[in-house]
Amino acid sequence: MHALNKDRPLRRILLATAATVSGTVLLLALKPHESPATAVSAPQPAPSGPATAHTRTVTGDRIQTRYGPVQVRVTVAGGRLTDVAAVSSPDENPRDRALSRYALPQLRQEALAAQSARIDAVSGASYTSGGYRRSLQSALDSTALHSADR
User: Fold this and answer.
1) What is the dihedral of CA 133, 44, 91, 126, to 10 degrees?
2) What ranges do the domains of the chain cover?
3) Helix (H/G/I), strand (E/B), else coil: 92
4) What is the pLDDT of residues 64-112, one digit of tens each?
5) pTM (global) more than 0.85
6) Residue 80: Cβ within 10 Å count
C-alpha cells in the first residue's frame, strides 16, 4: 500500500503538514553566513598641510532599528569624507553581532566610495543598513560636506 493512497486523504494531509513544518523549522534554524575573511579596509592616512585645519569629526544621530541602535561617526577633511566608524550597532545576541561584523565594513567601504549616504543595503542586514544610512546622513548634514540625498 502506498503512503499517499488516494483512499486516505487524511494521511496525505498529515504528511504534507509534517513536511511543511519540518522544512520551516530547518529554514529557521539556519545561521547567517559569516565571511571567514571580512575585509576591513586600512585606515586612511591623515591629510597633511592646509587641509588638516579643516578636519571635522561628527557623530550622527543614534537611530533605533528593530534590532537595536545604529550610530556612526564621520571624519571630513578638505571637503571629503575620509573615515566612517560605527559607534553602536545591534549586538543583543550572537546573530546580531555576526550580522554587524559582516555588514558594517561593507557599509563603510560604500560610504567612502560614494562620499555620501547614498549607499546600497547589505543583504541580510537591511534594518542595520537603513539605520546606518540615516545616522550617516545626519552626521553629513552637520558637516560642511553636503550630500546628494537632500
Assistant:
1) 30
2) 1-30, 53-141
3) coil
4) 999 899 999 999 988 889 999 999 999 889 988 898 999 999 999 999 9
5) no
6) 13
CA distances from 138 to 4, 117, 143, 146, 149 (A): 60, 9, 9, 11, 11
CA distances to 8, 120, 125, 143 from 66, in Å: 46, 19, 11, 28
pLDDT at 30: 64
Q: Do the Cβ atoms of 114 and 107 come closer than 8 Å?
A: no
Which DSSP state fits 66?
Answer: T
Which listed CATH number (3.90.1010.20, 3.40.50.720, 3.40.1410.10, 3.30.70.1350) goes with 53-141? Answer: 3.90.1010.20
Q: Which three cell numbers stand for residue 130?
A: 537603513
With contact defined as beta carbons under 8 Å apart, do 130 and 124 qualify? no
> Do 18 and 10 touch, CB atoms closer than 8 A?
no
Quick check: 146 and 136 in contact, CB under 8 A? no
